[in-house]
Please model this.
Amino acid sequence: MSETRTTDATPRRFAAEAAVTISFAGFNRPWAAWIGDRLRRRGHSVVFQRWDAPAEESLADLLGDLGLAPGPVLLILSDWYFQMGPRSHAEWNAALRSVVAPDPGRFAAVTVASGTVPTASSVLAPAELTGVGDREAERRVLERLGLPTDRLSAKAAAAPGPRFPLDSPEIWGGVPRRNTRFTGREPLLNDAYHILQEAEEGAGVLTLFGMSGVGKTQLAAEYVYRFCSEYDVVWWISAQNRSTYRRSLAELATALGLKTGPEYGERLRAALASLRRGDPYARWLVVVDGADEPEELWDLLPAGTGHVLISSRNVEWSQHNSALLEVPVYSRAESVSFVRRRAPRLDEAEAAQLADALGDMPLLLDQTAGWLNDSDLPVSEYIGLLDGGIDNTIVKVSADFPVAFQTAWSILLNRLRDTVPESIDLLRLCTYFAPGLIPVWLLRDIPSSEVPEQLAGLLNDPLRWNRAVNQLRQYSVVRLESHEGATEDAWSGESLYLHRMVHQIVHSDISDRDRDGFVDVVRHALAVADPGRPTDTRQWPRYAEIAPHLKYADVLGSTDPKVQNLVLNCLRYMYLSGEYDAGITLGERALKAWRTLLGEDHPRVWDVTHHYANVLRAVGDYASTEAVERAAVDHLRRTKGETDLDHLRAAGGLAADLRGLGRYEEALALSEWLLTTYRDLVGAEDSRTLNAQNNYAVSLRLLGRYRDALELDRRTMEDRRRLLLPRHPWTLYSQINYSTTLRLVGRYTEAESLQDTSVREHQIVMGPDHQQTLRAEQNLALCWYRNGNRAKAGPLLASVAERSERVLGERDPLTVQLLSTLGCYLREHGDIDEARRLSERVVASYERMLGEEHPFVAGTRGNLALVLRNVGERRQALQTAEGALAGMTAAVGEFHPWTLGCAINASAVRNVTGDAEGAAELSAGTVSRALESLGRTHPLTLSARIAHAADLRALRKRNSADKEEEAALGDLSETLGGQHVHTVAARSRQRPFWDFEPLVT
Model:
């Protein structure tokens, strides 16, 4: 449209202080916000006036009222501006001629219209803003208003403000196409905007809630398009379940340019951290669509400088710091306006009748008005059908829905059956995918020989397929969602979006005969799409796309080996990618279903048992894992015999569970039996034998039998170096174990030398953030610490803990272990308040994960007692230390090194609280037991001897104290060296303490 103006349209001059009134359709709010911002930067006042134009009011009167503003009136003309009401072009032409033409200088106008506009709008001489850049658009606005067009000062130009509407946000992902038929909802949009804008930082969370079909998703999408100019990041997440949500959030990390590894857990935590910091973008909006289960998602909601907009049927989001905004059905005026735009052949009275009959439900109005516009059926007859019912024996709708829903859907579906029968088959087929985004493109790869005759024509003929899809789209039953670079061809790799309510309605009454054909097709499609490599991180996006559909395709009811392999691969993917909750759910359901379908003895049952137990073990749920593995062990031993390999694999899992539960003696006996059995069955050099040998050493180490474990660890490491590659992951794992045991027996220099090399090899082979690399680095840091190199140890311990929390998550057992070690370091050499926070967090984690009586709980309570002592809370420290000692004694016995360490700490706390006799009695017994179990020169024995000397000195038994101290110092110098940090500290009479270290089980 030309921007040339006649003299009559020259803007009238107003007082300099007069505000500019900007009139705009809500759809064009980004333009209004940007124009208003540009004017304000130049010192002009602005008043925003959203144009509504209700049908019952005269258009001429509305324009006349707008002209009453004391200052300039700027109209932002668009297709929407002229359609509000709705109004015809004839009405607009008449109003423009009667109101604007006599005084054209009263109004100024710009246009962003893309379609045909009323011919009389030429009287406004609007300036064209589309197709130009921001500077030129600003110049045209100013010129049209008769304002100076000088450039802004550098300071004014640099101020933050809304983005130019033709410029997209820096990051834009997943947002559905804009609904050009969106109608009404202005108060809701306004309320949503103000709730989010006025929220305090970190509390900008709003849930749009309401029943299915009221348009929550459409409202959220319109919010995005109206207000996106105020955000630098807009990210849309379809939240059908936790795993889908995690995948989408992880993809945001990539879009933000964050440097992470491939694991979803690491990427999503990096994304959450970035949003929390507001770096690199502080103005962000994350939309979480369809989040009907708050308990599954609330802990993963972003917080920080931006906003979160949720759509949900569940008001319980209010319990998770979200504001609520109810989305009701349309008001009658909104219904009438929408129907008249959707079905222009209906007049206002007919639109009102239809709205009343359908209860103002937006989804039903959209679908019904769409096909009524293409039909010659009078509205009165349609309403008669609603009132009187319809023969729905061919296409039935579940009686769970209200009568109006049932009948309206029956009418629509029967219409589709009569016109494009394939569309009904396609719709039914879609209901065997999960609601929401349906990857129908997967169906293309199914061999035609495996497709039932009923569906072969639909799936093998792109023309019939497109015809069916387009018919469903035309009546708003589905919508087409494009990927990057895709076309409008529905067969080109697209996804269809099927509303949850539509999914439920159509799915609920499919006959059993039809069901088998549909479900088999979807199962085949999912199985064919299986990459077959769940260990390959590059394939994780494909598994993440497949996983939500397993339930709806009832894959657990299939006897097809390919479908069963898909289930196992998805379970393996969930374990490896950290989707533990989803993996636990799938594993539990698969185990139950396959026991019934295939029988207790079927190999698939033991396969799924193994993978299910791995997921349970990954979250530290050793009690559940032990129950699963013990049942498997008992059954396999009874049915297949003790030497069956499936039985041995299950027994190995059971031994690991027993170690996790702190039942170390039981684990040792089972581990020893497994090692002997594997040696006899497959030979000493088989990898399974070496694994059993490794695990036997782990059990010995957990029992404090360090010298016995050391010899086994050495042999396992050397065997793996010889039989496998020197840099094989299992060989590197053995290096960690051998170095750890060297450190535990006090051979710190040897341990550090081996671990230093091992860390470099881990970083080359497995990468810096692999959990095995993290273990290697932690052990190296502890070797440095024991050797007195605390300046190097501290930063590495902090780095390892931070990376583990980012990569594995805060609940992962390794993360908890690393945080425990870091807390101990900070207690002595860092922030005591942070040490206390970490120590309390670790204790709470182990209590929740392992139960009150587990040795890890007792040990970390002992660590906490030392923190309490250091901050001066001596009474609480004594109570905690004594409780830790009693708990550890009950868990592992009084001669275990962990119990001896707890006793060293408890005697120290007794000493500082004035119980010198109790401290001396305890330290004397500790020395005696340490000499018996560990030997005279073990570092823990030496610490006990130095501590006992301090207690004797507190009792004024100086001769005995000096004698004990002199002997201990001599052994320290001989064992560790005269200048070793422990020797120097003992010589300075610094009382020793002991840090509990949760060992890998």
Summary: Residues 1-7, 390-401, 483-492 have pLDDT under 50 and may be disordered. DSSP finds 43 helices and 14 strands in the chain.
